[in-house]
Specification:
about 260 residues, mainly beta, 12-stranded mixed beta sheet, two-stranded parallel sheet, about 15% helix
């Protein structure tokens, strides 16, 4: 099987041989489905069914940088009358994610509770399977690849009027559409794993969906660099510190709670 997948990947450059863009900027829209378990019908009616935001990925010289695109958040999404705060896992305002495909390293800057953290790690690769499906996105011919990510995620549950976040085991089905017309392994997530730019990505059967809105060859090369502002921690240290902050907020805030999606 490994030989078959390798052969397919080696043959892919012919798929986009007419255009070989190797630097640029991609604007993505992300849609996250939202649900709190144990919520009454009246409370669930107050919750938005989905949350949308935008992010951009800059890429050049075997490197990429992902960052959020500031937008005005609707007032209903910022905080409900019961003090519900929404925090979606993934890129947030101020978050940066740098990847160096030559060294296989990533550096992320994450902001949480008015604090900044720097997390250096290696690119964690998944096992991908190519299909024969093709799709044209923004004029670029794309191939479909699928994978699974086994881990844990935060699940919100309403208990006695408060939002409680619980960590649950999770297997996420992943569908990516990538183009070899831009043979750079960048994307909104799963960067460094496929031989072409990811233009669409589905995580968890629609739980989180990314789609490219525009692709430009213009990019500020000086912006593509590893972030350095914040406390240097490992990923495990960041998760522990973040969970402690959330637990403290839930304990001290009464009916106020922070709802984590993903994360």
């Amino acid at each position: 099987m490994k030989k078959i997948i390798y052969t397919l990947f080696m043959s892919l450059p012919l798929f986009g041989a007419n255009a070989q863009q190797k630097q640029g900027r991609v604007l993505y829209e992300r849609t996250v489905q939202m649900r709190v378990h144990g919520m009454s019908d009246s409370d669930e009616h107050m919750m938005p069914r989905s949350l949308k935001d935008k992010l951009e990925v800059l890429f050049a010289d075997s490197q990429s940088l992902r960052r959020s695109v500031p937008e005005e958040i609707p007032e209903d999404f910022q905080e409900s009358g019961r003090g519900l705060q929404l925090r979606v896992g993934g890129p947030a305002s101020g978050d940066l994610a740098y990847a160096n495909f030559s060294t296989g390293r990533t550096v992320e800057q994450k902001e949480f509770a008015a604090k900044s953290y720097i997390i250096a790690d290696s690119i964690r690769k998944l096992n991908w399977k190519l299909t024969e499906d093709t799709l044209t996105i923004l004029g670029y011919p794309c191939r479909k690849a699928t994978s699974q990510r086994i881990g844990k995620h935060k699940q919100g549950r309403m208990e006695n009027g408060d939002i409680k976040n619980r960590e649950v085991a999770d297997t996420v089905n992943i569908v990516a559409w990538f183009t070899m017309a831009i043979p750079v392994p960048a994307g909104p997530e799963c960067e460094g794993q496929l031989p072409g730019l990811i233009l669409a990505l589905d995580l968890g059967n629609g739980r989180a969906v990314y789609k490219a809105l525009e692709v430009s060859p213009e990019v500020e090369l000086r912006d593509i660099k590893a972030p350095s502002k914040g406390k240097t921690v490992s990923l495990d240290e960041f998760v522990k510190e973040r969970d402690k902050i959330v637990s403290d907020m839930e304990r001290k805030g009464g009916r106020r709670g922070m709802f984590l999606i993903g994360g």
